[in-house]
Design brief:
The complex is a heterodimer. Chain A is mostly helical. Chain A has eleven helices and no strands. The longest helix of chain A is centred in the middle third of the chain and has 30 residues. In chain B, helix 3 packs across helix 4. Chain B contains eight helices and eleven strands. Helices cover about 30% and strands about 25% of the residues of chain B. Among the domains of chain B are: about 40 residues, no CATH class; about 90 residues, no CATH class. Chain B is of the alpha/beta class. In chain B, the strands form three sheets. Chain B has a six-stranded mixed sheet, sandwiched between helices. Chain B has a three-stranded antiparallel sheet with strand order 2-1-4, covered by helices on one side. A two-stranded antiparallel ribbon of chain B has the order 10-11. Classes of the chains: A mainly alpha, B alpha/beta. At the A-B interface, helix 6, helix 7 and helix 10 of A face strand 5 of B.
């Protein structure tokens, strides 16, 4: 009935959604949407490096995104440019460098569309192991730093004063973000990963009145988006990444009509 | 020389600077258990900076700071919570430690906001939020409590009640309190030691000696020297936060 490649894609996609849910909540709470974008743009460079050195894509993406993330933390302390300008600087220079490097790799046939928008056909068994293994590791680490990271998200000074070591958890969180981009890049594609990080938590925000609830709802929202998105992309023969994001968007729109929860958008 | 076991904080000539401008320098003081030490001074005089050095949020760029406890609680001067984060009062009480619901309720009752336990933080008024902040700090049963203008935005009667509460807490928990306050009345009537800051320590001592100090009078004006006797206030009843009359 269902092709084998499709079942692989489903398993991989659900794994991705389980990890992007909780991390995406923190991305929203900490206003890091553009930070996620920058990291995923830098993933292009990671992918090209992987091809040219023939190493594992996820590993190389994690490596490059991780460096870009740490570079950003460093630049924020060292330069007088505002955060958004630095993000733009890093995002566009890394994507430019990535594209230039691709230009040199004439000896490799390159599916650039698949890279940008995700490709369900390409999900292999190794990818599933990477996603579930890496995802589990990310979730375990997130669980361990949850208290400290959450306190730092509410208020840095309070967390620092009361011994929660916010700087350490900030850096770890940044690397986790690079990790989640690394494992999900094949499914969703470079351009749309931030969408999966942001939209399910945005949907969840409309339905929840505490943090744990929001995390659970965004995981559920992510899974629904992946499952329906993949079936739709099979049915209509569309790219997997965009289709998943469209389903997530529809969920978000529906959630705006949810019966009155405590808080709505501030006017 | 043996260390006094009640010593919580010791600053020795501490100072902090940002881009080669000194925010405050030459601050020395000791704070002991059961003591309330107050920092007063005009805006920009380095009160919050001093508190942040004590809390290790800011590093001292000169001098030394010793902290002899790890049970700290902090009520910051400003705390903005992003509205994208759904956070109820009960969850907020727990953010840096695990506190039982009974203890949470008990402390919220102390500051008169027990009815708000499951409200979203964003729906609180400024004064209510300030009461929650204070309750959270008390609930941790700290040895060192740092309060940076803890009653800002609280209504007049509430202000008196909260200041009395702070006084009680220092006795009950036998904790040291570092208080930043603009309320000269309370400072002069209830605190043990006053430090008057203006980029450096202008004068310090017990309230009665500080008010006679010429540096204090110059900074705060002639009239504030006479505030010691001013603070007498009596009610035969008190009000709950919702306006109901309590005995």
């Amino acid at each position: 009935m269902l092709d084998e490649f499709f079942i692989r894609a489903l398993i991989a996609g659900i794994g991705v959604a389980i990890v992007t849910g909780p991390l995406g909540c923190f991305v929203i709470w900490r206003r890091l949407a553009y930070f996620g974008d920058t990291l995923s743009h830098s993933a292009l460079l990671g992918v090209t490096l992987a091809f040219s050195l023939s190493i594992n894509i996820s590993l190389s993406v994690f490596f490059v995104s991780g460096i870009v993330a740490l570079l950003l933390l460093f630049l924020q302390k060292r330069t007088k440019l505002p955060g958004d300008a630095l993000l733009g600087l890093l995002a566009h220079s890394s994507i430019a460098v990535g594209l230039v490097v691709i230009g040199f790799l004439t000896f490799i046939r390159f599916d650039i569309m698949g890279l940008l928008f995700g490709d369900i056909l390409s999900v292999t068994l190794t990818d599933i192991y990477t996603i579930w293994g890496g995802g589990l590791l990310i979730l375990v680490i997130l669980y361990l730093i949850w208290k400290s990271l959450f306190a730092a998200t509410v208020n840095y000074d309070l967390a620092a004063a009361e011994g929660m070591k916010p700087d350490r958890s900030n850096i770890i969180f940044t690397l986790l973000l690079a990790g989640v981009i690394a494992i999900s890049i094949k499914m969703i594609g470079i351009l749309l990963i931030t969408g999966l990080l942001l939209i399910p938590p945005a949907f969840a925000r409309n339905l929840s009145n505490n943090a744990q609830q929001m995390v659970v709802f965004s995981i559920i929202g992510g899974i629904i988006s992946v499952v329906f998105g993949l079936f739709a992309s099979l049915e209509f023969n569309t790219a997997s990444g965009p289709t998943i994001i469209v389903v997530a968007l529809i969920l978000f729109i529906l959630s705006m009509f949810a019966p009155n929860r405590d808080i709505k958008l501030k006017k | 020389m043996t260390k006094n076991p009640d010593l919580l904080v010791k600053l020795n000539n501490a100072g902090a600077n940002i881009s080669s401008k000194w925010l405050v320098r030459g601050v020395s003081f000791e704070l002991f258990k059961g003591q309330i030490l107050t920092l007063i001074g005009p805006n920009g005089s380095g009160k919050t900076t001093t508190a942040k050095m004590v809390l290790n949020i800011l590093n001292a760029d000169e001098g030394s700071i010793e902290i002899h406890t790890n049970k700290l609680a902090y009520v910051p001067q400003k705390l903005n919570i992003d509205w994208t984060l759904p956070l109820r009062v009960a969850d907020f009480m727990n953010i840096t430690s695990k506190i039982s619901n009974t203890r949470i309720l008990e402390c919220l009752k102390l500051t008169g906001v027990n009815s708000l336990m499951y409200s979203d933080i964003k729906n609180l008024s400024g004064g209510e939020f300030q009461r929650v902040l204070l309750a959270r700090a008390i609930a941790k049963k700290p040895e060192l409590l740092v309060l940076d203008e803890p009653v800002q935005g609280v209504d007049f009667n509430g202000e008196i009640a909260l200041y009395n509460l702070i006084k009680d807490i220092s006795d009950q928990l036998n904790c040291g309190i570092l208080l930043i306050s603009h309320d000269i009345h309370f400072v002069m009537s209830s605190t043990d030691h006053v430090i008057c800051l203006n980029g450096h320590i202008c004068c310090s001592g017990t309230p009665s000696t500080v008010t006679k100090n010429p540096a204090y009078i110059e900074l705060f004006g002639e009239h504030s020297a006479s505030t010691l006797s001013l603070y007498k206030h009596h009610h035969d009843h008190s009000h709950g936060s919702d306006g109901s009359i309590e005995k």
